[in-house]
Design goal:
The complex is a heterodimer of chains A (about 450) and B (about 425).
Chain A (H helix, E strand, L loop, with lengths): L1 E2 L13 H18 L2 H9 L2 H14 L7 H22 L3 H44 L7 H18 L2 H14 L1 H9 L4 H9 L7 H14 L2 H14 L6 H35 L13 H12 L1 H34 L13 H20 L2 H30 L2 H4 L6 H30 L1
Helix pairs in contact in A: 2-11, 2-12, 3-10, 3-12, 4-11, 4-12, 4-16, 5-6, 5-11, 5-13, 5-14, 5-15, 5-16, 6-14, 6-15, 7-14, 8-12, 8-14, 10-18, 12-13, 13-14, 14-15, 16-18
Chain B lengths: L8 E3 H4 L3 E6 L2 E14 L7 E9 L2 E6 L3 E4 L5 E3 L5 E2 L7 E2 H5 L3 E4 L4 E4 L2 E7 L2 E8 L2 H7 L2 H4 L1 H6 L4 E3 L3 E3 L12 H6 L4 H10 L2 H10 L2 H9 L3 H10 L2 H10 L2 H9 L3 H9 L3 H11 L6 H4 L5 E3 L5 H11 L8 E5 L5 E6 H6 L6 H4 L13 H10 L4 E5 L5 E6 H8 L2 H6 L16
Parallel strand pairs in B: 2-7, 16-17
Antiparallel strand pairs in B: 1-12, 2-3, 3-4, 3-9, 4-5, 5-8, 6-7, 10-11, 10-15, 12-13, 13-14, 17-18, 19-20
Helix pairs in contact in B: 7-8, 7-9, 8-10, 9-11, 12-14, 19-20
Classes of the chains: A mainly alpha (about 450), B alpha+beta (about 425).
Amino acid sequence: MQQLDGEHAAPEIAARRTAARRGIRRSLLLFFSIVGPGIITANADNDVGGIQIYSIAGAQFGHTMLWLLIPITIALIVTQEMCARMGAVTGKGLADLIRENFGVKVTAIVLLLFVLADLGNTAAEFAGIAYASPVFQQYLPVLTKYLIVPLVAVFVFTMVTRGNYKVVERVFFAFCVVYLSYVASGIMVHPPWGQILTALVIPHFTPTQAYVLAAIGVIGTTISPWMQFYIQSAVVEKGVTIKDYAYSRVDVITGAIVTDVIAFFIIVACAATIFVHNQHLTPGQHALTVSTAGDVATALQPLAGRYASLLFALGLLNAAIFTASILPLSTAYYVCEAFGFESGVQRRFAEAPVFYALYAGLIAIGGGIVLLASDAVENAIIFYSQVINGVLLPLVLVLMLLLINRPRIMGRYTNNIVFNVVAWATVIVVGVLTVISTAQTVFAGGG
Amino acid sequence: MAAATAFHEGFVSELVGRPAFVQRGGGRELVGKVADFVVGGPDAPFPAIDAVLLKTREGKMLVPLASVASIGDDGTFVLSEPPSTPAPPDDETLYLVEDLFDKQIIDVDGRKVVRINDIEITRAGGALRVVAADIGVSGLLRRLGVGRLAPSIVQRVPRTLIAWDNVAPIADMNPSEIRLSVSQGRLSRLHPSDLADIVEELNRTDAARMVSSLDDEDAADTFEHLDVETQRELIESIGTERAADIIEEMDSDDAADLLSELPQERQEELLAQMDSQTAEDLRELAAYAEGTAGSLMTTEYVWIYPHRTVAATIAKIREIAPETEFIYYLYVTDQTRKLLGTLSLRTLLLSPPDAAIHAIMDPEIVSVTPETSAEDVASTIARYDLLACPVLDAGGSMEGIVTVDDAIDAILPDRLKKQLPRFTRHGSARRSIAV
C-alpha cells in the first residue's frame, strides 16, 4: 500500500485456514488433473475398427486369441509411455518434434499419409454408426443411418467448436464410461470363466492362414499411428511436467489395461454366443457368419437377448462418436502445427482456414462416404486407409524411437537399454506384422 | 566477389546443396557441397553470415566468408583457397539450417508464434546478411523441392516474410548457451497482453525461457494477463528467486490469486524470498475465499491524513505515482487506518492549493467488506459509478480496494471473455481444446 504519511500500520497476521485447506485439496486433485490423456487415448483406440476385429476374432476363433491380449497390452504401454514421456519432457507434440528434427520432407510424407489414413478412419467410424442403426430401428424406426450419421456429424462439430475444453473433456470421460456396456454384454452372456482364464494365460496357436491374419488384425488395431500423436499432445496440453510424470505413467498403464479389458469382454461375449452357436449347430440351423460389428450386434439378439444386443450397438455408436470427435480434430491440429498454419477452435474460420477446412472436410467426407457412396466404394476407401495405416505405423514408431533416444531432446530421460530392447522388439514385431497384414490385404483386396 | 552474374539475394534453401569449387591454376575443382551457414553476432538486427559449412569428402569443413571468391547467381560457390578448418560442434555457433530451420520464433510485428520455413539472405555492403524469415507456403514448397520441379507454382504463391529485425528467436533455438539478448529488446515492444498470448502459444520450456528473458516488471505485467494454470506452470519452471521477484512486481490481487493456487510449502518458499511487508500483505490476501471482495482487492492504494493540504498531497502523489497503479481516488484515514472519506483526483486538482483535505473530501462512504461476493462488489461499483470501491473490516478500517476492471473480470463469464476481440482480451486465452 502507498501512504502519503510516514507511519506504517502494523501488518496483521493473516488467517491461513482457507489457503491450508486448498493445499490439501490440491494434492488430492493432482492425480485427477493429470490422468485423462492415457485413458481417453487408449479408449479411443477401441474404435469401430477395433470392436469389429475383436468381435470377429471371438466369433470365429472362440477363446483362442485371448492370450494375445497380454503381450498387446505390454506393447501398447511401451509405445504410449514413450510418447507421454516425450510430451512431458519437451512440452512439444510429436508432429512438432518430427518437423524440428527431421525437416519438411519427412514431415510432409508422414502427415500426408496421416491425413489419408485418417480420412478412411473417419469414414470407418461413421460406417460404425450405420452398422449400429438397424438395432436402434427396432425401438424407433426413425433412427436410420440417414438420420443418425448427419446428427452425429453436426453434434461432433458443434461440441468441439462451440464447447470449452473442460466440458469436452468431461464428455469424453463419459464416453469412456459407456465402454463399460461391453463389460455388461460380456457378463450377460454367462461365459465359462474357468476356460477363459486358462485361455488368457496359456498361449495357443492355430497354424491356419485365417488365424494368423486375425491375430495380426488384433495387434494392428490396438496400436495405431494417430494415437501416438494424440497422447503426446494431450499430455502437453495438460501441462504435465516430468516432475509429475509418475502420475502420467499410471494414467498410461491404466488406460492400456482398461482398453484391453474391454477388448477382452468383446471377445468373450462373441465367443460365448456366436462361436458356441456355430460349434453346436443342430440340423436346420445355419452357421452365423459375421463380417462387420453390425452383424455381431444383430447376431447377439437371438443368442443373448435383446438387451445384450442393444448394449453392444450402443457401445458401437459410442465408439464411433467418440473417435469421430477427436480423430478429425487432432489430424487438423497436427498438420497445422507442423506446417505453421493458424490452428485452434478458438479462432474464426477466416483466421484459420486450413485448420477448419481440414477438420470440417474430414467429417463431411467421412460422413458423406457412408451415406452417399456405394458399399463397394466405402469399403475400398476404408480398406486403402488401413493399408496406409499399415505403412505409416512402422515409420512413426521408428521416428519415435530415434527421437526418444536423442539426449539433445530428452536430456537424461532417454530410453534405458532394457526399455530400448523391449521397444525395438515391439516396433519390429508390430512393423513386420503390419507389413505382412498390409501385403495380405493388398493381395486379397486386389484379387 | 567480382563475377558479373553474382548472387544478390535468395533463400538459404536454394543455396544448400549447391556445389563449391576451389580455384586451382586456371581451372576450378569441386571440393564439396554447401550444407549450412554460420551467423556471427546473432544479436544484430540483420546478422551477417560469417562462414559457410561445406560437406566435403573429408567431412564437414568451415569456410570463412573471406575465402569465398564468388557466389554465382545459380548459387555456385567459388573459393579462393581449399577449406582447412573442420566444422566446430553445433553448440558453439549459430547455424542457419541446423538451428533455425523448422523452429518456432516469435513474430514481434504479427504478435504470434510462427515456424521458420526458409531464410532470405541478401548481399548488402559487401556482406551477406540474413534479412527475413519465410513463414509461408512458398517457403514450404521451396523446401519440398517444388521450386526446382515447377518454379511457376512457387512464384505464384504469395510470400509471407518477416523482416529479421521483427524476429525474436526463442532462447532455446540452439541448445548451447548462445544468449539471444536481442529477444528481450524486441519483445519489450509488445503489449503485456500480447506477450501473454504468445506465452500461451509456446510450450512450457520455451515459455519459461521467454519470461525469464524479460525484466521483472515486463514479466510481472505479462503474468497478470495469463491464466492461473499457465502462471503456475511457469512459476515451477523459472526458479524460486526469480519467481518471487516477478510476483513481487505484480498487482497484489493478482499475486495473491496466484499464490493461493500454489501448494502451501511452495507459497512459503516464495514469500520467504520477498520483502516482509509485501509478503504479509500477500499472506492476508491469499487467505480470502475465491469470489469475494477480499480475493479481488489490491492493497496498493493511496491514503492520506485529513489535515494535509492539497498542494502537499499533489506533490506527494507525483512522487509515488510511478509506483502505484491506482491513484484516481485517495482514501482519507485516521491513524488506525479507519476510513473517514474519499477524494477523487479530479476534486483534488480543482481545489485551491491551500485547502485542507478534510474540507474537500466526500464523507459519504460507499464500501464493501472482505466477505462481500464479487457480484455484489460489481453492482456496488456500477450503481455508484465508481472506479474503485474500498474494502473495510468490521471496525471500518481500510483493508484494500477493488478496482472496476478486476470487478468486471470476476463477474464476466469465461465464455464472454473469450469472445472479446484479441487485442482487448485478458487472461484466460487457453487453447480451448486439447489434442
